[in-house]
Amino acid sequence: MTDIRRPVLAVVDVSDSGRTDPVFHGVLTTLTTRVALAAEQVGFEPVLLAAEQLGADGLLAATADADAVVVTGGEDVAPEFYGGRPDYQDAGQFFRAADAAQIALVRRAVRDGLPTVGICRGMQVVNVALGGDLVQHLEAGGHVRAGVPTESMVDHAVTLRQGSAVAEALGATSFTVRSSHHQAVGALGAGLVAVGAAPDGTVEAIEHERAPLWCVQWHPEDTGAVGDVLEDLLRAALRASTR
User: Fold this and answer.
1) Is the pLDDT at 178 greater than 90, yes or no?
2) For 172-216, what is the HEC assignment?
3) What DSSP designation does 120 have?
4) 207 assigned to active site
5) Looking at residues 149-166, what average pLDDT do you find?
6) Is 25 a catalytic residue?
7) By the 8 A CB rule, do 139 and 197 touch?
8) Which of 25, 50, 51, 59 would you call most buried, defined as having the most Cβ atoms within 10 angstroms of its Cβ?
9) Which of 75, 204, 207, 221 is catalytic?
10) Phi/psi of residue 177, each to 5°?
11) Cα-flanking dihedrals φ and ψ of residue 61, to 5°?
12) What is the pTM of this model?
């Protein structure tokens, strides 16, 4: 009996080692594991990849035969990749090799029409890769619980643009979501459209005008997340990968 090949989902994390904060590393590992488990449930064969260790050439090679890609959360993108100031508030550890690798991957994915999902940092990487920039620090909270590394998530509302690809994939336009980010998308990259926002106007979802690309700033993979947002995003990528 011949085994039926399951579509491969590349789950691209920042790094699998070298973090100065082991608690944060553990949180990110848990979130990435939940993405992989959800990918299996919807029909993908997930492959976990660490961008920092692979570098740009290695990551491009490792994803050459992938059917779809998820770029996960993590540290801030180093400001030189989008012309930002180096001395902004709450800047932390950077993984520049991961930044360069993920940027190269996103550019190829958009060029080739490879289905791509971005989560939190992943959404920011997508925007930077396509020429956009970032709000380097959000003032007065609302999107992260500062000083509590093991539980930094904040619940808040998000409204999606009716008729957008993200809203159609998720089957709704209003959500209560879990966020943990002190940066956000600023000026949009080429071909990107902002299709979701928090009550304070922070961009919470983007998509591409032509490419199969869906990004959210919140964390649908968090254990406290409500609903099937993560699974719905992955199903959208699965449908696009098999057309």
Assistant:
1) yes
2) CCEEEEEECCCCEECCCCCCEEEEEECCCCCEEEEEECCCCEEEE
3) T
4) no
5) 89
6) no
7) no
8) 51
9) 221
10) -125, 170
11) -65, -40
12) 0.95
